[in-house]
Each structure stands twice: as C-alpha cells, then as structure tokens.
Specification:
Length: about 230
C-alpha cells in the first residue's frame, strides 16, 4: 500500500496486512537511483555510448519500482535526453546524420524498457486500481494535514471502508479537534510523534460519540462498537 511510503513502520499495520518486510521511507534511495540514472544517460549521450544510455534507462525503471513516484524520474529522463541531444545536434552540425542514428537507437531502447515496465506495473498489484485509489486517499490526508484543515474542512465525509482509513480518520479527529474544552484532549507533545492526554473523560466520550456517528462506516467498525454507538453518553 502506498501509505507505507508516507508513515513510519507500524506493528499493528504490519500484523493486520501480514507485512513481513518493508522499505520504510525510501525517498533518499529513490533520489540516489534517479541521480545515477541521470548521470549514466548523460554520460552515454556525450560519449555516444548506447550501453551507458541503456544503463541510464534501466536504472530509471528501477526507481519506478522502488516507489511509484519514480514514474516522474522516467519522464524527467526523457526530457533530459531531449535537451542533451539538442545540444549535441546544434554543436556538431557536421555529424548530424550520425547523431540522428544514435538518437533513434537510444530512444528505441528507452521506450522499449519503459513500455515493458509500465505493462508489468499496471498489469500487477503494484499499480492496480486499488493501490492507486489508496494512494490518492493518502495524498488527500497528507494535504489536509499540511494545510491545517481537519475533518470539518471536508465538504462530504467519505465512506470509511478499511481499518487503515479508520485509523487515519481517528488521528485527524484527535489532533485537529483537540482542546480540553472541545473534546477533552490535551496536547502533551507536538513532535514527530503526537502525544495527547485525556483531560476530561466526559467531554472526550461525547466528542468521540459524535465523531463516530458522523462517518459512514463500511467496514466492521459498527459491529465492533455497536454498544457504544447505540447508547448516547449524554
């Protein structure tokens, strides 16, 4: 799931989704692979080496399979190759025919690799519709957190259909609606790991009840919390 690329390793998630291993936060690894792909391709074009160019295309495909955003690396490499070929073509007018043949060979190899990579990715669970949908939802949650908007900032509350969405919704509720006079929660630590304390149990129970009944649960949340949802704390 794409959500694992954004948040730290979680034992509960790992057990729920039977995750035996994970990359963690792979942005630095993807960046390093992207730099290697760029340098290999540029070196190959400058020295007219098909092998080095092929290496650059292949490494960019590796970046894509490290993290879906590696697709941007692949697109960027096409742009970089185009710029390099334009410079080479304009700076050496006497060798333009040779350069065009070299260009055709390089792009043929690159687009063949890209076509195969996209076919494998979108034809498997790696870039399935479910994964893409989860990525969009995770991105929306991150955007709302960065903009400082809580659940009230969303015009329509989306249906919650999985345990991971349930957890994210609760984290948004607990953090953005915090306040002893609001939901009875007091923020103790606002670092990378948020720590809240229940300062008023009655207000927290009322706020939690209101939050739970404001969401359309499509998973088993209603069954697990049937007694709580049916009995108002007031």
């Amino acid at each position: 799931m794409p959500i694992f690329y954004y948040f730290e390793y979680n034992d509960i998630f790992a057990k729920a989704y039977v995750v035996t291993n994970q990359w963690g936060l792979v942005d630095t690894l993807e960046g390093a692979i992207a730099a290697l792909a760029t340098s290999s391709l540029r070196f190959g074009i400058i020295n007219r080496s098909v092998k080095w160019c092929a290496t650059g295309w292949f490494v960019s495909v590796v970046a894509f399979f490290i993290k879906p955003s590696g697709l941007l690396v692949m697109m960027a490499l096409v742009g970089i190759a185009t710029v390099e070929f334009c410079i080479l073509f304009l700076s050496r007018p006497s060798s333009r025919r040779t350069i065009l043949k070299f260009l055709a060979a390089v792009y043929s190899i690159g687009f063949s690799m890209y076509g195969l990579a996209l076919w494998l990715a979108f034809g498997s669970d790696y870039m399935s519709r479910e994964v893409i949908a989860q990525a969009v939802k995770a991105s929306q949650i991150l955007i709302s957190i960065n903009q400082g908007s809580g659940p009230e900032g969303v015009a329509e509350t989306p249906a919650v259909s999985s345990w991971s969405e349930e957890v994210e919704r609760f984290k948004q509720f607990a953090y953005f609606e915090r306040g002893v006079d609001k939901d009875g929660l007091e923020l103790v630590s606002d670092g990378p790991v948020k720590l809240l304390r229940v300062a008023d149990a009655c207000k927290f129970t009322e706020a939690l009840y209101g939050w739970a009944n404001s969401i359309h649960w499509m998973d088993d949340f209603g069954d697990r919390n049937k007694a709580f949802l049916e009995k108002s704390p007031k």
